[in-house]
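Fold Annotation — chain and its backbone

Encoding — discrete vocabulary of local shapes
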Amino acid sequence: MDNSMPVISKIFCSSTLTTLMIRRRPIVVNGGGFVVTDLSNNVVFIVDGCGMLGSKGELLVKDGDGEEILFISRKGGIIQALSTWNKWNGYSMDYQGKKKLVFSLSDPKLCITKGAPTRIHIEHKRHCKNWDFEISGSFADRDCTITDCSGKIVAQMGKKEQIGCKDFYHVVVQSGCDKAFIIAVMAVLDNIHGESTRC
């Protein structure tokens, strides 16, 4: 039985639970961002941030071969400036370079909304609420969880105890979940918290 839940593509969904290792690149090396490997140390995804792209609030997720699969940008403009939420949009990229909106992530930015959960809306889904995924916990402490709108955990982040530094952590992705989407969410959280993808 196929229990895959693709957001970006079915090719990024695995039939088994998957642990992905994330290592931050120093900003001075290849423009910052981070590299994602599997437990066999094979590069699965690469995330480029401001240092590589040259623009604040823009991120690029590539597969292990360096092919661009997702472009993420923080929404700007006067309406966004007046909003109590920061909004990020993720766009899939086809072979011709055309972009198609896949998801939107809303992060609280003001005191009155601080403590409110970060929510993700998937463009092509029928929603069980007015959002599809929710992020809880602390990214800064490397202890956060992504759940779907029914409360089911789809991914959980943690530190590797033997390494014990913020430059190296892991994300456990449940079977059937889209790993590229989870890494895209990690990239946005990294940027929000002023880490390796931010200038």
Observations:
- The longest strand covers residues 99-108.
- The chain has a mean pLDDT of 83.
- The first helix runs from residue 50 to 53.
